[in-house]
Amino acid sequence: MAxxxxxxxxxxxxxxIGEIKIPALKNISLAIERGSHxxxxxxxxSGKTTMLNLLGCLDTPTTGKYIMEGKEISxxxxxxxxxxxxxxxxxxxxxxxxxPHLTVIENIGLPLFYQGINEKSIAERxxxxxxxxxxxxxxxxxxxxxxxxxxxxxxxxxALINNPAFILADxxxxxxxxxxxxxxMELLNKLNEEGTTLFVITHDSKVADYGDIVIRxxxxxxxx
Amino acid sequence: MRFNIxxxxxxxxxxxxxxxxxxxxxLLTMLxxxxxVASVIAxxxxxxxxxxxxxxxxxxxxxxxxxVRAVKPPPAPGTEQQxxxxxxxxxxxxxxxRIKSIPSVEQIVPTWEDKRDVWYLDKxxxxxxxxxxxGYPGVMNLIVVKGRFFNQVDYEMIKPYAxxxxxxxxxxxxxxxxxxxxxxxxxxxxxxxxxxxxxxxVSGTGFEAEDINFDVYMPLTTxxxxxxxYTSGERRGGRMSIDRSWVKYHRLIIKVAETEQIITTAAITxxxxxxxxxxxxxxILVPLQLLKQAEHTKKIxxxxxxxxxxISLVVGGIGIMNIMLATVTERTREIGIRRALGAxxxxxxxxxxxxxxxxxxxxxxxxxxxxxxxxxxVTKFASMITIITYWSILVSFGISVAIGITFGIYPxxxxxxxxxxxxxxxx
Lengths: 224, 427
Known about the structure:
The complex is a heterodimer.
Chain A: E1 4-17, E2 20-33, E3 37-41, H1 48-55, E4 63-68, E5 71-72, H2 78-88, E6 89-92, H3 104-113, H4 119-132, H5 148-160, E7 166-170, H6 178-193, E8 197-202, H7 205-208, E9 213-218, E10 221-222
Parallel strand pairs in A: 3-8, 3-9, 6-7, 7-8
Antiparallel strand pairs in A: 1-2, 1-4, 4-5, 9-10
Chain B: H1 5-21, H2 23-61, E1 65-70, E2 84-89, H3 93-100, E3 105-120, E4 123-132, H4 136-140, E5 144-147, H5 152-156, E6 161-164, H6 166-172, E7 182-185, E8 188-196, E9 215-219, H7 220-227, E10 234-236, E11 241-247, E12 251-256, H8 262-276, E13 282-285, H9 287-330, H10 332-340, H11 345-382, H12 390-416, H13 420-425
Parallel strand pairs in B: 2-11, 4-9, 6-8
Antiparallel strand pairs in B: 1-12, 1-13, 3-4, 3-7, 3-12, 5-8, 6-9, 7-8, 10-11
Helix pairs in contact in B: 1-11, 2-9, 2-11, 2-12, 9-11, 9-12, 11-12
């Protein structure tokens, strides 16, 4: 078997709203190698968000197996999933999702806080990450004092700080203008070239084109 | 390792930051706890002060004593029309002898009292003349600070000696040495041979307050020779009628040998007096019983106080819960972000719980300060004794922390069990 970071085996997700069952994902199987750059495309309602939630260990599949680094994690409890999110996954959101009352450096260091690392080394590692994304002189600012592109850079730094196995980016350029969006994608691309596995969920084909592999999803099924 | 002290300190610091961020809101939230704690401490201090006063007064009467007091019976109908009314009542030497024969009685001291003006040169003051036995200071725990009390010889020899209460001494001899000086009471002259120590004036204890600092003591024999058995009387109403009383003894102070015998001795005394008196012209005080009553009253007072305090603290706690619930809703998205970044449910619980505890304990702390200030103000302006007990501070502060935990747990759990996906989408 190749060095697969993630394997989905016949994964289905069915949401129940009252008596009505809504299938969001139908029998999805895929394998992702370490270091790859995958773009996940599809129109709204196609099951993209469900894919993101499952990949990001925010939700568990109804049936099927989710194997990460050779271990099945589809039936783990809340605490173990939190632990995986804390150590293996970096999240980047469309709306940045920074905590408004924390400074840039505190936002970047937040994932390490939940690993029980002491404040001094959190601050050290966070300022290194701030330098990586080019925000060295903004570390004492609050998110509201930054531009959209700068906020997304903070989010990228935050996603990288725990040395995750992969980064999940949900429409990372959705709230940005074309130029800034391109800068962000180039930054992500550079990180991928340095070895970070990257998952980008988008409906923008320009963004999807950065990926090595483009997975298209429609009505809960992989079409391509 | 995850939940070591440092980590908790970090969560505390983060919680404090959040509270500091919303200063006004946090302050308003705390107010309930502040006033709850302050009122508990202040009310307990005032209650403790009042019961301390009661206990002191009772101790002053002597916890091994039984006191029989002459009480003027209500006048029979019709007699009130007379211009001069002589009331004969009270305890007599026969009562004294009968009570003295009770085996458990160790000592018995009678007194005869009258209000008179006391003069020294051109200075005068009104005083309570007390004719008694030489054993009086012993049974009443009086301390002679100057000179001496009259003794058995003085008593037998009917010496014209007087011992002054501290206020009398201060009024008549503010700068002079009183021992050996001659004072005048009515038309008679007495030599001052001693001064007794000052006693705190105690009030609000449920029975008549007597300022014994205005007493002048003399041998009962001397007093009988000079003043007889009729009190000087007091003017009554506008008709210039004079009320005089004919009383053998105003008080009997009965000292009982053993504390356990007090109740039975009091009962026997009561029986003796009832059998020999046609009217209810006496009253029996048992300081020990009063002490027990005072303790009982204090217990009830504490229960009532506890209930009020509990209600006010619960109200304060509900205030905290209210704000914490609002905070959880307001920070739903933050909770989602934190969960996505790896926060476990217990991390979220401890974050919100610690915030609630910080709020309630700061409130408790301010409440303690306020609660310690209020009794001082009361003492200053209402001249009441207040006693702040350390346990009331500890207990009320402890309760305020407990309130924070109790009323913080629901909002914290609510936060922790939010679906992270929903929370992230929350606008």
